[in-house]
Amino acid sequence: MVPFLAITACCLRSITTEADREGTRVSGRTGGFAFLSGGAGRLFGLLFPKPVNEFVAIQREFGTIACMTNLAACPNQWDRKQRECKVIIETPKGRRNKFDYDPKYGVFALGGLLPEGLAFPFDFGFIPSTLAEDGDPLDVMVFMDEPAHVGCLVDVRVIGVIEADQIEDGKRTRNDRLISVAVHSYSHENLQTLTEAPNSILDQVEEFFVSYNKSRGKKFKVKGRHGPKRAAALVDAAIAAFKAKAKKK
Prior knowledge:
Layout: H1 2-22, H2 38-47, H3 52-62, H4 64-69, E1 84-91, E2 97-102, E3 107-113, E4 123-127, E5 138-143, E6 153-168, E7 171-174, E8 177-182, H5 199-215, E9 219-226, H6 228-248
Parallel strand pairs: 5-8
Antiparallel strand pairs: 1-4, 1-6, 2-3, 4-5, 6-7, 6-8, 6-9
């Protein structure tokens, strides 16, 4: 049953992506799966006789279609009281390759390469269904015992934020870095606020972002460090901004 559901989800993703790209209604004797060939088309036509756009409408109603076609729109399960949520890892700790999620292709793309001697000090990713001031999902650095892998979904607790401006070609953009700890952690399980983290570690994290941006012709100007209350307010604002943008579509 599980493999069948996995295949179904994979096919639904392909179909809805195709429908979004072409903006057309797919129909025929195999229903919404007319473009599938041979027995596969007949099988899915019998199981799912409705046209693709009807599936899209149904899935959008339940919020599943967005997640299937765009990981950045998946539920974040934000718990403000516990300050816990879901994070999708883009670049694991210790990697020189910088990976970025590409919603157009639905995969993680190589976004850049760090110079020799420079690597991500901790796992780095984003909170889905958020919209930061720079137009992207909120960035999060995750303190973990071991590096995760690209695309890994991690439960985290937000403990603070490094507020900063990013300057490129004279244009200044707010580009904060949330700091979190993995819920499943031995080394960091007791951290509840940024002030409990060693200053030496936070200094290195800030220096990493300064050096990383410098290598890409940008400036990263740290404005300050703040605790979980300030960080939670940023998450709330980013979730509200994401919902507001979604309503306009």
